[in-house]
Design goal:
Length: 107
């Protein structure tokens, strides 16, 4: 094995170790979130106000962004060699201008 091949093999091993460590951290966070969700994130059903709903809405948006990064990799391409999974290419935008929309009347 040449020095270059040995270096490549060590690099792959180190990359795998880093990936598995981050995956373990990710899985632990998911388990904590699942447990908190089972407890309704500590919200008291008798005293839940809009603040709790807004927080949960914000958290959901962040989780959707993470899911989109995984399930729609074409939108978040950080590794150009990875093949997108089932993502159809976007249609090009029309070059013709659409007519302007009439303003909505204010109540």
């Amino acid at each position: 094995m040449t020095d270059r091949q040995a270096s490549t093999a060590r690099n792959q091993e180190n990359s795998l170790a880093a990936f598995l460590a981050k995956k373990a951290e990710f899985d632990a966070l998911l388990a904590e979130l699942a447990q908190a969700s089972g407890d309704h994130f500590g919200a008291d059903p008798e005293a839940t106000l809009w603040g709790e709903a807004a927080w949960l809405s914000d958290a959901t948006v962040k989780l959707k962004d993470i899911a989109d990064q995984h399930f729609r990799p074409g939108d978040y391409d950080v590794c150009p060699t990875r093949r997108p999974r089932g993502r159809r290419p976007r249609r090009p935008r029309s070059t013709t201008a659409s007519p302007p929309k009439a303003p909505r009347p204010r109540p």
